[in-house]
């Protein structure tokens, strides 16, 4: 109900107003009255009314002085002046205090009702605006992790808009970037037999596992790091060396590279290559270090440790090397982003520009063209999976493999890619699912961050303002799995990692990933992994 207070030095006016106002009809209630401005201040401070009806000429403190004091104290309620004098100067002063109406006595009941109705309508509109603003702020808080992660990724690959390449536009958590140096470490999954057996859905979970391992390992060597996924098989660590000598930094980088390779091979049975970019003093130069890190992997020229695939950027690349290392991170990222957003023209232009540069190089063999085609197809496939489109429904693996064999030159590669881009962007399946991918991105991110808690579809439906049933359908359409199946797979994958560390008992691991019923946890674990938790740690 809307609260109304009345301040007037005439008791007859006070009583008459209380009787005349249609309280129930206006959904309003009387909360207090006073005969002067001083008592009026006390009443308003105590009751915090939505509307104040006040006279101007009163003893002890007049209405204008009372209003001035109220506004100084931050009172934002509506004020209606009901005065026995039609004084222009007083009306002018009243405007300074954001008065809703200035009415001369006597006032008829219909007029009073009309004025109060108008003021209450303003209050209703302001309340609705506040609610919408609050909902918007809540949503922004929910999506803030996505915004920050996307910013880090853009900063790492060099796609930030020019207006955001200054310290003033650094997000608060990354302001420290202005006061430290930066090195990027590229991680690239080797497409061996085991990796090629992974489905796109399984690979998404393995990427989640790789991110956990990489961050845990890296933080033991460098206190502050950022981790971001790029596309397909590639991810990136950004580390910030302290005031250390070049020799100390190199030793730490060697240690980190070895631990990354050993840990991912031990826990996930996957093989990775590690590339280390050059150190940069300015955060705006991080994209250069990123390119250098993956160029080091592509060239495989300078191995940091004899028995490990850890490669360091040489500092200069010859023209002969360029012909076998034309796969820039920025291009790959832009292509993936364009495909996820269904920007057909943008994706085709990116391919055309890339092929134009490729044709300038010497010694481009059919095998190299086919390798590029395979890598680019992997980028497109994974980026679209992230957006909710599984390409298996449009193209079979056998079909793609046969078509790749027929690509013997850059022009053939360009025509093949552009044809595939057109087919994908015009498919009904893509158009139908793309509008929901941001919601599902948020849901999967939330699951990965809160899997140990009581996570329910109902809770998430309230967070994203979509009904539970509709959200369930959206999630299944985009991921190919039910919400509960996806949550269970994430929990079991994390449990598997914890068990392999052999630092916790089975019941402790179960509780850590959100299960209090140990037999139920063991059943789920065996169903998904094929073995009991106790068998894994023997």
Could you characterize what this model shows?
- By secondary structure, this protein is of the alpha/beta class.
- It folds into four domains: 2-128, Response regulator (Rossmann fold); 180-317, Reverse transcriptase/Diguanylate cyclase domain (Alpha-Beta Plaits, 2-Layer Sandwich); 329-426, no CATH class; 435-536, Homeodomain-like (Arc Repressor Mutant, subunit A), CATH 1.10.10.
- It is built from 24 helices and ten strands.
- The chain has helices at 11-20, 23-26, 37-47, 63-72, 88-96, 109-157, 193-197, 200-221, 246-268, 286-299, 319-322, 329-340, 344-358, 366-386, 397-405, 410-425, 428-433, 437-450, 457-464, 468-479, 483-501, 506-512, 518-529, 533-536; strands spanning 2-7, 28-34, 51-54, 78-83, 101-104, 183-189, 225-231, 234-239, 272-276, 310-312.
- Helix 8 (200-221) packs antiparallel against helix 9, helix 8 crosses helix 21 (483-501) and helix 12 (329-340) runs antiparallel to helix 13.
- It is elongated and about 100 Å long.
- It starts with a strand and ends with a helix.
- Residues 140-146 and 317-326 have low confidence and may be disordered.
Note the topology.
Layout: E1 2-7, H1 11-20, H2 23-26, E2 28-34, H3 37-47, E3 51-54, H4 63-72, E4 78-83, H5 88-96, E5 101-104, H6 109-157, E6 183-189, H7 193-197, H8 200-221, E7 225-231, E8 234-239, H9 246-268, E9 272-276, H10 286-299, E10 310-312, H11 319-322, H12 329-340, H13 344-358, H14 366-386, H15 397-405, H16 410-425, H17 428-433, H18 437-450, H19 457-464, H20 468-479, H21 483-501, H22 506-512, H23 518-529, H24 533-536
Parallel strand pairs: 1-2, 1-3, 3-4, 4-5, 9-10
Antiparallel strand pairs: 6-8, 6-9, 7-8
């Amino acid at each position: 109900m809307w609260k109304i207070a009345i301040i007037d030095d005439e008791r007859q006016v006070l009583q008459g107003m209380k009787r005349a106002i249609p309280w129930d009809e206006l959904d309003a209630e009387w909360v207090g009255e006073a005969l002067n401005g001083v008592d009026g201040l006390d009443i308003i401070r105590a009751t915090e009314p939505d509307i104040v009806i006040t006279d101007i000429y009163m003893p002890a403190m007049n209405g204008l002085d009372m209003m001035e004091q109220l506004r100084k104290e931050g009172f934002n309620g509506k004020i209606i002046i009901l005065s026995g004098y039609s004084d222009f100067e007083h009306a002018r002063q009243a405007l300074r205090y954001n008065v809703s109406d200035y009415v001369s006595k006597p006032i008829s009941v219909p007029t009073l009702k009309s004025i109060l109705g108008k003021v209450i309508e303003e209050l209703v509109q302001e309340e609705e605006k506040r609610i919408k603003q609050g909902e918007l702020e809540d949503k922004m808080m929910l999506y803030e992790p996505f915004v920050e992660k996307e910013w880090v990724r853009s900063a790492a690959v060099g796609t930030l808009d020019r207006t955001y390449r200054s310290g003033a536009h650094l997000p608060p958590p990354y302001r420290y970037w202005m006061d430290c140096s930066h090195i990027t470490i590229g991680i690239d999954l080797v497409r061996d037999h085991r990796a090629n057996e992974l489905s796109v859905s399984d690979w998404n979970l393995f990427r989640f596992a790789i991110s956990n391992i990489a961050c845990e390992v890296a933080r033991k060597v460098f206190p502050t790091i950022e981790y971001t996924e790029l596309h397909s098989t590639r991810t990136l660590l950004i580390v910030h060396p302290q005031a250390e000598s070049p020799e100390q930094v190199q030793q730490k980088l060697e240690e980190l590279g070895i631990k990354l390779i050993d840990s991912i091979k031990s826990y996930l049975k996957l093989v990775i290559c590690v590339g280390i970019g050059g150190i940069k003093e300015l955060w705006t130069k991080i994209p250069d270090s990123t390119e250098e890190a993956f160029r080091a992997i592509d060239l495989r020229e300078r191995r940091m440790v004899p028995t490990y695939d850890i490669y360091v950027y040489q500092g200069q690349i010859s023209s002969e090397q360029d012909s076998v290392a034309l796969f820039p991170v920025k291009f790959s990222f832009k292509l993936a982003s364009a495909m996820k957003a269904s920007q057909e023209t943008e994706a085709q232009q990116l391919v055309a520009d890339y092929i134009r540069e490729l044709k300038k190089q010497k010694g481009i063999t059919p095998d190299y063209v086919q390798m590029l085609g395979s890598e680019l197809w992997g980028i497109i496939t994974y980026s679209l999976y992230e957006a909710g489109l599984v390409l298996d429904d449009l193209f079979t693996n056998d079909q793609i493999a046969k078509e790749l064999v027929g690509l013997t030159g850059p022009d053939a590669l360009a025509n093949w890619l552009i044809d595939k881009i057109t087919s994908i962007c015009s498919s009904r399946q893509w158009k139908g699912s793309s509008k929901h991918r941001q919601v599902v991105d948020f849901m999967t991110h939330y699951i990965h961050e809160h899997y140990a808690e009581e996570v329910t579809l109902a809770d998430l439906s309230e967070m994203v303002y979509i009904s539970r049933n509709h959200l369930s359908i959206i999630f299944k359409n985009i991921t190919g799995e039910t919400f509960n199946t996806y949550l269970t797979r994430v929990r079991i994958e994390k449990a598997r990692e914890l068990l392999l560390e052999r630092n916790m008992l089975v019941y402790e691991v179960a509780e850590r990933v959100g299960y209090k019923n140990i037999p139920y946890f063991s059943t789920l674990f065996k169903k998904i992994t094929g073995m009991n938790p106790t068998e894994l740690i023997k």
